[in-house]
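Journal club prep — side note

Before the paper discussion, L.F. wants everyone to see what a predicted structure for a comparable chain looks like in C-alpha coordinate form. Sequence:
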Amino acid sequence: MSNDPALRIHSSFLRCVSAPGTTTVRLPESLTSPVDALVFDLDGVLYDHTTWQRWLLQLLGKLGLHTNYTLFFRVWDCDYAQQVAWGNLPYWTAMRSFLLATGLSSGQVDEVEAAGRSRFSAAEQRIRPFPNVRSSLRQLSLRGLKLNLVTAFPWTRQQLTDRLGRLEIVNLFSYTASARDWPQTTPAKQRLAESLDAAGLDSARTAYVGRLNGELQAAAQLGMPTIAFNQEPDASADFQLEQFDTLPHMIPSDTVRLLAAG
Protein backbone atom coordinates (compact mmCIF):
# COMPACT_ATOMS: atom_id res chain seq x y z
CA MET A 1 0.00 0.00 0.00
CA SER A 2 1.18 3.54 -0.73
CA ASN A 3 2.78 5.55 2.07
CA ASP A 4 0.84 8.62 0.93
CA PRO A 5 -1.94 9.19 3.54
CA ALA A 6 -4.22 10.76 0.95
CA LEU A 7 -3.96 7.70 -1.31
CA ARG A 8 -4.62 5.40 1.64
CA ILE A 9 -7.78 7.29 2.49
CA HIS A 10 -8.89 7.37 -1.14
CA SER A 11 -8.54 3.61 -1.55
CA SER A 12 -10.59 3.07 1.62
CA PHE A 13 -13.18 5.56 0.41
CA LEU A 14 -13.73 3.54 -2.78
CA ARG A 15 -14.63 0.54 -0.61
CA CYS A 16 -17.08 2.50 1.51
CA VAL A 17 -18.89 4.67 -0.99
CA SER A 18 -22.41 3.53 -1.78
CA ALA A 19 -23.63 3.18 -5.32
CA PRO A 20 -25.21 6.44 -6.50
CA GLY A 21 -28.94 6.44 -7.03
CA THR A 22 -30.55 6.81 -10.41
CA THR A 23 -33.22 9.38 -9.54
CA THR A 24 -32.70 12.87 -10.94
CA VAL A 25 -32.85 15.54 -8.25
CA ARG A 26 -35.42 18.22 -9.04
CA LEU A 27 -36.02 21.59 -7.45
CA PRO A 28 -39.78 21.70 -6.93
CA GLU A 29 -42.22 24.32 -5.77
CA SER A 30 -44.09 21.54 -3.99
CA LEU A 31 -44.43 17.78 -3.81
CA THR A 32 -46.52 16.37 -6.60
CA SER A 33 -49.00 14.53 -4.34
CA PRO A 34 -50.48 15.08 -0.86
CA VAL A 35 -48.74 13.70 2.21
CA ASP A 36 -50.02 13.14 5.73
CA ALA A 37 -46.68 12.73 7.46
CA LEU A 38 -42.93 13.12 7.22
CA VAL A 39 -40.08 10.93 8.44
CA PHE A 40 -36.77 12.67 9.18
CA ASP A 41 -33.27 11.43 9.75
CA LEU A 42 -31.48 13.40 12.49
CA ASP A 43 -27.73 13.79 12.14
CA GLY A 44 -26.79 16.30 9.45
CA VAL A 45 -30.47 16.85 8.65
CA LEU A 46 -31.92 18.61 11.68
CA TYR A 47 -28.61 19.79 13.15
CA ASP A 48 -25.00 20.32 12.11
CA HIS A 49 -23.07 17.23 13.20
CA THR A 50 -19.76 18.37 11.71
CA THR A 51 -18.46 20.87 14.32
CA TRP A 52 -16.01 18.39 15.85
CA GLN A 53 -15.06 16.85 12.52
CA ARG A 54 -14.19 20.20 10.94
CA TRP A 55 -12.03 21.15 13.93
CA LEU A 56 -10.27 17.78 13.77
CA LEU A 57 -9.57 18.16 10.06
CA GLN A 58 -8.00 21.58 10.68
CA LEU A 59 -5.75 20.10 13.36
CA LEU A 60 -4.71 17.25 11.08
CA GLY A 61 -3.86 19.76 8.38
CA LYS A 62 -1.42 21.43 10.79
CA LEU A 63 0.17 18.02 11.28
CA GLY A 64 0.64 17.62 7.53
CA LEU A 65 -2.39 15.44 6.72
CA HIS A 66 -4.31 17.26 3.99
CA THR A 67 -7.42 15.52 2.72
CA ASN A 68 -11.01 16.05 1.63
CA TYR A 69 -13.69 16.22 4.35
CA THR A 70 -16.17 13.89 2.65
CA LEU A 71 -13.54 11.36 1.63
CA PHE A 72 -11.87 11.32 5.06
CA PHE A 73 -14.98 10.95 7.19
CA ARG A 74 -16.69 8.49 4.86
CA VAL A 75 -13.88 6.08 5.69
CA TRP A 76 -14.32 6.82 9.41
CA ASP A 77 -18.07 6.24 9.17
CA CYS A 78 -17.63 3.03 7.19
CA ASP A 79 -14.83 1.34 9.12
CA TYR A 80 -14.96 2.76 12.65
CA ALA A 81 -17.96 4.90 13.63
CA GLN A 82 -20.47 2.04 13.61
CA GLN A 83 -18.22 -0.03 15.86
CA VAL A 84 -18.15 2.85 18.33
CA ALA A 85 -21.87 3.50 18.08
CA TRP A 86 -22.77 -0.12 18.74
CA GLY A 87 -20.49 -0.26 21.78
CA ASN A 88 -17.88 -2.54 20.24
CA LEU A 89 -15.02 -0.04 20.58
CA PRO A 90 -14.37 3.02 22.80
CA TYR A 91 -14.36 6.20 20.74
CA TRP A 92 -10.72 7.12 21.23
CA THR A 93 -9.51 3.55 20.69
CA ALA A 94 -11.23 3.63 17.29
CA MET A 95 -10.04 7.14 16.48
CA ARG A 96 -6.43 6.26 17.30
CA SER A 97 -6.60 3.19 15.05
CA PHE A 98 -8.10 5.30 12.27
CA LEU A 99 -5.46 8.01 12.51
CA LEU A 100 -2.63 5.50 12.63
CA ALA A 101 -4.06 3.87 9.52
CA THR A 102 -3.81 7.19 7.68
CA GLY A 103 -0.06 7.22 8.32
CA LEU A 104 0.21 9.53 11.33
CA SER A 105 2.87 8.60 13.87
CA SER A 106 2.04 7.47 17.41
CA GLY A 107 3.32 10.80 18.70
CA GLN A 108 1.07 12.75 16.36
CA VAL A 109 -1.92 10.63 17.37
CA ASP A 110 -1.10 11.30 21.04
CA GLU A 111 -1.11 15.01 20.23
CA VAL A 112 -4.50 14.79 18.52
CA GLU A 113 -6.01 12.89 21.43
CA ALA A 114 -4.63 15.29 24.03
CA ALA A 115 -6.02 18.29 22.17
CA GLY A 116 -9.22 16.64 21.05
CA ARG A 117 -10.76 15.00 24.11
CA SER A 118 -12.13 18.18 25.68
CA ARG A 119 -13.01 19.64 22.29
CA PHE A 120 -15.01 16.52 21.37
CA SER A 121 -17.00 16.59 24.62
CA ALA A 122 -17.72 20.30 24.26
CA ALA A 123 -18.93 19.87 20.68
CA GLU A 124 -21.32 17.10 21.76
CA GLN A 125 -22.86 19.33 24.41
CA ARG A 126 -23.24 22.36 22.14
CA ILE A 127 -25.20 20.89 19.26
CA ARG A 128 -27.65 23.31 17.68
CA PRO A 129 -30.33 22.82 15.03
CA PHE A 130 -29.80 24.18 11.55
CA PRO A 131 -31.39 27.61 10.96
CA ASN A 132 -35.19 27.57 10.90
CA VAL A 133 -35.48 23.88 11.81
CA ARG A 134 -37.51 24.45 14.97
CA SER A 135 -39.87 26.98 13.39
CA SER A 136 -40.36 24.86 10.26
CA LEU A 137 -41.11 21.72 12.26
CA ARG A 138 -43.59 23.62 14.43
CA GLN A 139 -45.27 25.04 11.34
CA LEU A 140 -45.64 21.58 9.83
CA SER A 141 -46.98 20.19 13.09
CA LEU A 142 -49.53 23.00 13.44
CA ARG A 143 -50.76 22.21 9.94
CA GLY A 144 -51.65 18.73 11.15
CA LEU A 145 -48.82 16.73 9.63
CA LYS A 146 -47.43 13.87 11.71
CA LEU A 147 -43.70 14.31 12.26
CA ASN A 148 -41.60 11.19 12.81
CA LEU A 149 -37.92 10.51 13.36
CA VAL A 150 -35.99 7.39 12.32
CA THR A 151 -32.25 7.87 12.70
CA ALA A 152 -29.70 5.97 10.64
CA PHE A 153 -27.23 6.34 13.51
CA PRO A 154 -27.78 3.83 16.34
CA TRP A 155 -28.42 6.18 19.26
CA THR A 156 -29.66 4.50 22.42
CA ARG A 157 -33.11 5.60 23.56
CA GLN A 158 -31.61 7.80 26.28
CA GLN A 159 -29.03 9.31 23.92
CA LEU A 160 -31.72 10.10 21.38
CA THR A 161 -34.00 11.70 23.97
CA ASP A 162 -31.13 13.77 25.37
CA ARG A 163 -30.06 14.91 21.91
CA LEU A 164 -33.57 15.95 20.92
CA GLY A 165 -33.88 17.74 24.24
CA ARG A 166 -30.72 19.76 23.64
CA LEU A 167 -32.09 20.66 20.21
CA GLU A 168 -35.41 21.66 21.85
CA ILE A 169 -37.47 19.57 19.43
CA VAL A 170 -38.17 16.51 21.59
CA ASN A 171 -41.93 17.13 21.81
CA LEU A 172 -42.51 17.66 18.09
CA PHE A 173 -42.38 14.02 16.99
CA SER A 174 -45.19 11.48 17.14
CA TYR A 175 -42.81 8.56 16.69
CA THR A 176 -39.06 8.20 17.19
CA ALA A 177 -36.69 5.30 16.56
CA SER A 178 -33.03 4.73 15.83
CA ALA A 179 -31.05 1.98 14.17
CA ARG A 180 -30.28 0.73 17.71
CA ASP A 181 -33.89 -0.49 17.95
CA TRP A 182 -33.05 -3.29 15.48
CA PRO A 183 -30.23 -5.82 15.19
CA GLN A 184 -27.07 -4.23 13.82
CA THR A 185 -27.30 -5.88 10.40
CA THR A 186 -30.93 -4.89 9.75
CA PRO A 187 -31.25 -3.24 6.29
CA ALA A 188 -32.43 0.37 6.11
CA LYS A 189 -35.48 -0.64 4.08
CA GLN A 190 -36.66 -3.01 6.81
CA ARG A 191 -36.11 -0.41 9.54
CA LEU A 192 -38.12 2.15 7.62
CA ALA A 193 -40.90 -0.28 6.69
CA GLU A 194 -41.33 -1.45 10.27
CA SER A 195 -41.27 2.16 11.51
CA LEU A 196 -44.05 3.08 9.10
CA ASP A 197 -46.11 0.13 10.35
CA ALA A 198 -45.49 1.00 14.00
CA ALA A 199 -46.47 4.63 13.42
CA GLY A 200 -49.52 3.68 11.33
CA LEU A 201 -48.30 5.51 8.24
CA ASP A 202 -48.91 4.93 4.52
CA SER A 203 -45.61 4.98 2.64
CA ALA A 204 -47.13 6.67 -0.41
CA ARG A 205 -48.41 9.52 1.77
CA THR A 206 -45.30 9.89 3.93
CA ALA A 207 -42.31 11.88 2.69
CA TYR A 208 -38.79 10.99 3.78
CA VAL A 209 -36.28 13.78 4.50
CA GLY A 210 -32.64 12.67 4.78
CA ARG A 211 -29.09 12.99 3.53
CA LEU A 212 -27.64 9.47 3.28
CA ASN A 213 -27.96 7.74 -0.05
CA GLY A 214 -28.69 4.33 1.43
CA GLU A 215 -31.57 5.66 3.53
CA LEU A 216 -32.98 7.74 0.67
CA GLN A 217 -32.91 4.77 -1.68
CA ALA A 218 -34.57 2.54 0.94
CA ALA A 219 -37.36 5.10 1.31
CA ALA A 220 -37.78 5.30 -2.46
CA GLN A 221 -38.06 1.51 -2.70
CA LEU A 222 -40.95 1.68 -0.22
CA GLY A 223 -42.74 4.19 -2.43
CA MET A 224 -42.06 7.21 -0.21
CA PRO A 225 -41.46 10.62 -1.82
CA THR A 226 -37.84 11.45 -0.95
CA ILE A 227 -36.38 14.85 -0.12
CA ALA A 228 -32.61 15.32 0.17
CA PHE A 229 -31.21 17.97 2.50
CA ASN A 230 -27.50 18.56 3.15
CA GLN A 231 -27.01 15.33 1.25
CA GLU A 232 -23.93 13.24 0.60
CA PRO A 233 -22.29 13.86 -2.80
CA ASP A 234 -23.48 10.50 -4.12
CA ALA A 235 -27.01 10.78 -2.70
CA SER A 236 -30.05 10.98 -4.93
CA ALA A 237 -33.70 11.78 -4.22
CA ASP A 238 -36.92 12.95 -5.83
CA PHE A 239 -36.45 16.49 -4.57
CA GLN A 240 -33.67 18.61 -3.13
CA LEU A 241 -34.14 21.01 -0.24
CA GLU A 242 -31.68 23.90 -0.35
CA GLN A 243 -32.90 25.68 2.80
CA PHE A 244 -34.86 24.00 5.56
CA ASP A 245 -37.48 26.74 5.86
CA THR A 246 -38.68 26.00 2.32
CA LEU A 247 -39.91 22.57 3.44
CA PRO A 248 -43.36 23.75 4.66
CA HIS A 249 -43.92 25.42 1.28
CA MET A 250 -43.23 22.13 -0.53
CA ILE A 251 -46.20 20.39 1.08
CA PRO A 252 -49.20 20.58 -1.30
CA SER A 253 -51.96 22.89 -0.12
CA ASP A 254 -54.58 20.15 -0.47
CA THR A 255 -52.73 18.18 2.23
CA VAL A 256 -53.92 20.73 4.77
CA ARG A 257 -57.49 20.61 3.49
CA LEU A 258 -57.55 16.79 3.59
CA LEU A 259 -56.15 16.64 7.11
CA ALA A 260 -58.60 19.28 8.32
CA ALA A 261 -61.51 17.40 6.74
CA GLY A 262 -60.36 14.11 8.28
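L.F.'s comment for the group: Strands lie at 37-40, 146-151, 175-178, 206-210, 226-229, 239-241. Keep this in mind when we get to the figures.
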